[in-house]
Amino acid sequence: MKAWHGLVPVFDEENLVSHAGLVPVLALGEAAGFSELVAQRVTVPSANPVAKVRTVVAGMLAGADSIDDLDVLRSGGTSDLLAGVRAPSTIGTFLRTFTHGHVLQLHAVNRDLLRGLGARVPGLVGAGDLAFVDLDDTIREVHGYAKQGAGFGYSGVRGLNALIATISTPTSAPVIAECSLRRGATRSGKGAHWHLNRALSTCKGLHARQVWVRGDSAFATWKNVAAATKAGAWFSFTVPMWKTVTAAISKIPEQDWTAITYPRAIRDEDTGELISDAQVAEVEFVAFTSRRKDEQVRCRLVVRRVKRLGAAPAAVAGQGELFTTWRHHAFLTNTGVDAVQADAYHRGHAIIEQVIAELKDGPLAHLPSGTFTANGAWLACTVLAFNLARAAAHAAAMPRARAATIRSAIVAVPARLAHTGRRLVLHLPARWPWSAAWSNLWDTATRPPAPTTT
Q1: Alpha-carbon distance 307 to 326, whole Å?
Q2: In the structure, what pLDDT confidence band is assigned to residue 263 with cuts at 50, 70 and 90?
Q3: pLDDT value at residue 351
Q4: Given pLDDT bands bounded at 50, 70 and 90, which one contains residue 275?
Q5: Do 113 and 387 form a contact (C-beta atoms < 8 A)?
Q6: pLDDT tens by residue, 302-319
Q7: DSSP collapsed to 3 states, the chain
Q8: Which residue, among 269, 153, 148, has the nearest Cα to 216 in the 3D structure?
Q9: Backbone dihedral region of 48: left (phi > 0), alpha (psi from -120 to 50 degrees) or beta?
């Protein structure tokens, strides 16, 4: 390398593009109907909402986690490549015009876009006999007193609550079917059945076979169970140690426990310790006994127990040695698989934690506005960007790649624009390690749509 004093940095090249991978990713979105859906659905009182929503989503795909970061799209030749890019100040004003109803319109765009992406990229929601709909929420910490709706939630930090519903299969990475920004002090399960109904409808449009709804104890409510059963879906919800649950566990005969060994150690929910073996059993159970007889749910209670390490805590009155020797983790389910398989699939619910981590590592690192509905629109655009990136990963033959990998390998590829006659030529780096994946994505985004069969 030459000595540093021999280099002279000058920011004067008008034809360089820092994120050339935005072209095929956005082209894939256009092929799935992105702009048409925004134009049809979003009625926000602002000029040209299509260009503004596209600017936000493109900036997020490029790594923007604040409104000011969107300015990266106006550098060099990027604005020539992506027509209609708007300034950050314009985007800030645009987001503040959203009402709750307009945010719901963006959610509708996401549902329709997922169907379009599923048709364009058949592997987006993998084939097979089973699909999972997972529910979870997270607290996005905020600072200052100007954030509307901020409050102290279950995590003990001041923030806003984001509810997420994902769709995945054993062979495909998750996409986000539904989202909702809620006040920070909102209970996790509040109103979740409303979003679950829409997620199940979306999932049926993408995967017509058996659907399995999973959630932790915050979502173990009668309304969520009713939503799942009404849609013909299986469910498994972790349950707290209600009195009825502890009574049911205490009646399980010792010979009914089946020993299981995990091929890879898993983390215990209570202690954080890594465990490699456990025991599983099941018992018939009636849930929600405080409700009317016709609303009580007859199902299975599947229980996993793990031996306590170290000294056992003092016995709890009425529980004897049963609960001092073992830690128990129970969930309600109506699935048609045996207890060991049900336990394995239910633990797969943790996949949604990775989705939330990817969102927080990207556009959801901040909620950029003081206006609650503007932050709701920001979350909705975050989901649109996530699903576009996930579809792009499948189209690039990188189906398991995470959002950060898609940004670095596909989106953040530099290029030089050359104007030749009526064409723009995009000169990409020679020997780019992911050139084959980039070309796969380009071919998928630009090829004619597959003929419809009748």
Answers
A1: 5
A2: low
A3: 92
A4: low
A5: yes
A6: 999 887 765 444 444 444
A7: CCCHHHCCCCCCCCCEECCCCHHHHHHHHHHCCHHHHHHHHCCCCCCCHHHHHHHHHHHHHCCCCCCHHHHHHHCCCHHHHCCCCCCHHHHHHHHHCCCHHHHHHHHHHHHHHHHHHHHHCCCCCCCCCEEEEEEEEEEEECCCCCCCCCEECCCCCEEEEEEEEEEEECCEEEEEEEEEEECCCCCCCCCHHHHHHHHHHHHHHHCCCEEEEEECHHHCCHHHHHHHHHCCCEEEEEECCCHHHHHHHHCCCHHHCEEEEEEEEEECCCCCCEEEEEEEEEEEEEECCCCCHHHCEEEEEEEEEEECCCCCCCCCCCCCCHHHHEEEEEEEECCCCCHHHHHHHHHHHHHHHHHHHHHHCCHHHCCCCCCHHHHHHHHHHHHHHHHHHHHHHHHCCCCCCCHHHHHHHHHCCCEEEEEECCEEEEECCCCCCCHHHHHHHHHHHHCCCCCCCC
A8: 269
A9: left
Cα gap 169→200, rounded to integer Å: 14
* pLDDT of 242 above 80: yes
41-199-386 Cα angle (round to 5):
70
Q: Which residues of 129-164 are buried (b: 16+ CB within 10 A; e: fewer)?
A: ebbbbbbbbbbbbbeeeebebbbebeeeebbbbbbb
Distance CA 268, CA 310 (A): 15
pLDDT of residue 271: 59
Q: What is the pTM of this model?
A: 0.91
The region of weakest confidence among 61-70, 75-84, 354-363, 372-381 is: 75-84
Buried b vs exposed e over 291-304: b needs ≥16 C-beta within 10 Å? eeeeeebebbbbbb
pLDDT of residue 195: 95
Say if residue 71's pLDDT is above 70.
yes
> Domain spanning 128-360 has what CATH number?
3.90.350.10
Orientation of helix 222-230 relative to helix 192-206, angle to 10°: 20
Domain positions in the chain are 12-98+372-446, 128-360
pLDDT at 340 over 80: yes
pLDDT of residue 315: 45
Instruction: Band the pLDDT of 83: cuts 50, 70, 90.
Output: confident
Q: What is the percent of the chain where pLDDT is above 90?
A: 67
The answer to whether 431 and 417 have CB atoms below 8 angstroms apart is no
